[in-house]
Specification:
35 strands; 12-stranded antiparallel β-sheet; single chain; 29% strand
């Protein structure tokens, strides 16, 4: 006997089926099925044949595949009893609770005295399905691996796309062909990591940014994850996500996964991207002051580094305000004896040498210039050369002789006394001064993975958020080393990369938009010569690339020529005029036929207004620019398109493309099919096109 359950919205249907009282499996996930679809016939239609060399029946690819049922692939649960003996669960379905757009599946293993619970929650507005699992027992067990509810991958896919990277080179996309066996990625660094962003996209054959079917996944956990994309010998495919294996170092009677966010799209990668962008911005992030415009950001790091002088910082603050900045962030170097990165982490007391009267005079000056004030912390870290390490060496995580990272160790966030100490130091500063922003850094990997470390960090942030609800927090970890939906349920901004190189940022931001909205993605106009790449880029290119996301500056404004300052003021003014609607805009990646072009269309949800950023990452292979096709417009509607920065056309743009002369009016059908020809441009430049529906 087979029993069925389904979740539906106007984009998709997901169907679960249980046969013979076993743990259910997902038998359908894709475009909406008619309300009267015969689910028993649906299950029968996808039942595989058997032949020589096979079992007499194919084992279920259940939401928690079980080795005890001769499942030939990776199991969904690996656990040992309190005495270390391995357990082989064999779950029987107890019940499925249906409540609106939520299914709760409860299975039991009476022999091993285990209960497995899986939750599926469908958001019909964002089309994101949040899946989570937990296992309970009547005595402490040792967990090796627990997957969030397992989903099948499509047979019509030839490849998968996961996300890798490095410091100053985050969000690089890897394409791997499906083949028999496993694509296995595991991050054991104890944080999300530059190298292992917990995301996966599985496109069906022929999918592009704007068309075709695609499935996408994101695991919302900051402590390191494991991903399995497996093709079984019979051809079926499974996707598993969970904490990195052996992350739970202590036995327990209950273990839980983080949420796995899953998306089906029938209109290409953009369908996945928009779902993730909206779900993160509108469901996961808790904004400190909802409705307040995102302030233009200034960070002093690449201006002064550790060399803090009050008169210099006041001058820089005045200049930043004159450029349009609305928040001033004091970065590393304000505390202890912090003249370089070798000392004082964890002391968190203002350095009286640099600030003899405390931070008050600088904060007052920043406020006088009309800006809010923010400050840098790295709470989870400690330098051996610090007062706190000398007093409490036992607070450091890991072995005494461990390899240091940036001359620092990690604090053991699983210890209540460590969290209490950090709370007291941070809250004392927040209570004493009007501070509305924390840049929360995390500059080294952990010496060993431990889920308790992540839970402890979450607990500290949660406590500070509860007591200081108006303080916004940015997640930074040497740039993009801790970006995930778990940390973003506690923070409101991420620092995508320590690279302010606009050319590198152009591609990173483009790829990160598959998961992140503009509202949370910090992007700064860096110095003329980039400090991490040595590349020298024009101020216009640097400014417009930063204006694609949450705009900020991070350079010494004293280096700017009057021309550069005027360009930056102009772009900043444009961003302020447009930021309110861009806050809620969908970022749509455009399918440019020129491989040197990286283009996106940011558009309001109702499609009434949009802006296109079309950046050149290199020299085009063809001599004349190829038309750029837009997406998601109303074919019948008429749109006015204008080139915001047409004055930047160079002398080598010798023709008369219509955009150089003034606005164009075309139907959505024409813009999506024929596209629009851009003027010729140099590499490392960017065109900005503004559009509105008439």
């Amino acid at each position: 006997m087979t029993t069925h359950w389904r979740l539906d919205d106007d984009r998709q249907t997901l169907v679960l089926a249980s046969t013979g009282g076993r743990c259910p499996q997902v038998i359908y996930w894709g475009p909406p099925l008619p309300e009267g679809e015969d689910l028993a016939q649906l299950a029968a239609a996808v039942t595989l044949d058997v032949t020589g060399g096979m079992l007499d029946e194919n084992p279920d690819l259940s939401i928690c595949p079980e080795a005890s049922r001769t499942f030939p692939g990776q199991p969904g649960l690996i656990v040992r009893d309190s005495d270390g003996a391995p357990l082989l669960p064999a779950f029987k379905l107890r019940e499925v609770v249906e409540a609106g757009q939520q299914l709760t599946v409860i299975c039991e293993d009476a022999r091993n005295r285990l209960t497995y619970t899986a939750e599926f929650v469908l958001d019909p507005d964002t089309h994101v399905i949040a899946l989570s699992a937990r296992v309970n027992s009547d005595r402490p067990l040792h967990l090796h691996w627990l997957a969030a509810p397992v989903l099948p991958a499509p047979q019509q896919s030839d490849e998968m796309i996961d996300v890798a990277g490095r410091w100053c080179g985050e969000f690089q996309l890897n394409r791997t062909a499906w083949s028999p066996g496993i694509r296995y990625r595991e991050n054991r660094t104890g944080r999300t990591g530059h190298e292992h962003f917990p995301g996966l996209i599985v496109p069906c054959r022929g999918a592009t940014n704007a068309s075709g079917e695609a499935f996408a996944f994101h695991y919302g956990w900051s402590g390191g994850h494991r991903m399995i994309a497996e093709e079984l010998p019979d051809g079926r495919r499974q996707i598993q996500f969970g904490h990195a294996a052996r992350m739970e170092t202590a036995p327990s009677t209950e273990f839980r996964t983080a949420p796995l966010y899953a998306v089906y799209s029938s209109d290409g990668f953009n369908g996945c991207a928009v779902s993730f962008q909206r779900h993160l911005r509108d469901r996961i992030v808790t904004w400190t002051r909802p409705g307040r415009p995102r302030p233009v950001h200034y960070n002093c790091w690449e201006a002064v580094y550790f060399d803090h002088k009050l008169d210099v910082l006041k001058d820089i603050a005045t200049r930043a305000a004159g450029l349009g900045a609305e928040r001033f962030v004091l970065d590393d170097g304000w505390f202890g004896q912090r003249d370089d990165d070798t000392s004082s982490l964890s002391d968190w007391e203002v350095d009286p040498r640099k600030y003899p009267d405390g931070l008050g005079p600088l904060i007052e000056h920043v406020h006088t210039e009309g800006m809010a004030f923010g400050i840098w912390f790295e709470p989870e870290m400690i330098n051996p050369d610090s007062n706190i390490h000398r007093a409490h060496p036992d607070w450091a995580l890991g072995a005494e002789d461990q390899i240091l990272g940036r001359q620092q160790k990690a604090l053991n966030m699983g210890l209540a006394e460590v969290r209490e100490f950090l709370y007291e130091r941070i809250s004392a500063l927040l209570s004493a001064h009007p501070i509305d922003y924390i840049k929360w850094d995390h500059n080294r990997v952990l010496p060993a993975p431990d889920a308790e470390q992540t839970r402890g960090s979450y607990a500290l942030i949660d406590r500070l958020r509860a007591d200081f609800p108006d303080v916004e927090i940015e997640s930074c970890a040497s740039g993009g080393g801790r970006i995930d939906f778990g940390i973003l349920s506690r923070t409101q901004r991420v620092w995508l990369s320590d690279s302010n190189d606009a050319l590198e940022r152009l591609q990173m931001q483009h790829n990160a938009a598959l998961f992140l909205p503009a509202a949370v993605t910090g992007s700064h106009v860096g110095p003329r010569k980039c400090h991490t790449s040595g590349r020298i880029l024009d101020i216009s290119f640097r400014s417009w690339v930063a204006a694609q996301r949450h705009l900020g500056f991070e350079m010494d404004p004293r280096e700017l020529t009057e021309y550069e300052a005027e360009v930056l003021r102009d772009v900043t003014s444009w961003w302020k005029v447009n930021r309110d609607w861009m806050y809620g805009a969908d970022i749509l990646r455009l399918d440019a036929t020129d491989t040197a072009m990286i283009a996106e269309q940011q558009m309001t949800r109702d499609g009434s207004q949009f802006v296109i950023f079309a950046g050149k990452s290199g020299t085009s292979r063809q001599i004349a620019p190829r038309p750029l096709r837009l997406t998601r417009l109303d074919p019948e509607a008429r749109y006015e398109i204008s080139l915001r920065n047409r004055h930047e056309a160079t002398e080598l743009s010798r023709g008369s493309p219509a955009l150089k002369q003034g606005p164009l009016t075309l139907t959505g059908a024409a813009l999506m099919h024929n596209g629009i020809a851009l003027p010729w441009s140099y590499p490392e430049t960017l065109w900005v096109l503004e559009g509105k529906r008439l």
